[in-house]
Amino acid sequence: MKKLLILLSLTTAITAFGAPQGNSINKGDMEITATVIKPLTVIATSMEFGQVIQGSKTTASSNYQITGEKGQPITIEIPSTVELASISGDTMTATIEYRNLPNSIGESGSTNVAVNGHLNVASEQAVGNYTGTLTARVQYQ
After folding, report:
1. Could you tell me whether strands 130-131 and 110-120 are parallel, antiparallel, or unpaired per DSSP bridges?
2. Whole-prediction pTM
3. How do residues 30-49 score in pLDDT, each as one tens digit?
4. What is the distance between the alpha carbons of residues 113 and 98, in angstroms, rounded to a whole number?
5. Quick one: average pLDDT of 23-36?
6. Which of 20, 42, 66, 137 suits a disulfide with 77, CB 3.0-4.6 Å?
């Protein structure tokens, strides 16, 4: 019983005298906000070089249509080359060019990117159908 009384006395003393006098809890409120916007969509039209004779050059055009939240800044990455391959494994490279990549979605909610491809077919290039994929990466900034 004596031990219990000592323990209770110590607990009371710590509680009464342990916290500094005038110590109050202060707080700060942080406002949290979010703005939900439309996702980006990218639609590409096919680039068709058509029939190309061995040892010749040709050019083709296409475009990407990008839609999203109007006026929002974006970044666009398009490779400068794309490899075309036949089903037998033969390859050739098309050079890609584009001008004036937009840096935001237009006020209509969309923007277009014109893309030109140049193909120099070697005189010994294997005959066949060739395909490749040009991937544009678009994201909000």
Report:
1. unpaired
2. 0.75
3. 999 999 999 999 999 999 99
4. 8
5. 92
6. 137
What is the rounded radius of gyration, in angstroms, for the C-alpha atoms of the chain? 33
Q: State mean pLDDT over 88-108.
A: 95
Strand runs (DSSP E) across the chain, as ranges?
41-44, 57-67, 74-77, 81-86, 91-98, 110-120, 130-131, 137-140
Q: How far is CA 90 from CA 54, 107, 108, in A?
A: 14, 44, 43
C-beta of residue 129 within 8 angstroms of C-beta of residue 91: no
Tokens 């060739």 appear where? 130
Tallying the residues shown for the chain, one arrives at: 141
Residue matched to tokens 């080359």: 81
- Whether 8 has a pLDDT exceeding 70, the answer reads no
3-state secondary structure of 11: helix
Q: In the numeric block, which tokens belong to residue 31?
A: 């406002």
Across 58-81, average pLDDT: 97
**Torsion sign, CA atoms 55, 57, 63, 64:** positive
- Which residues partner with 44 through β-bridges? 64
Q: Which two tokens stand for residue 136?
A: 């544009």
In this predicted structure, the answer to whether residue 102 has a pLDDT above a threshold of 60 is yes
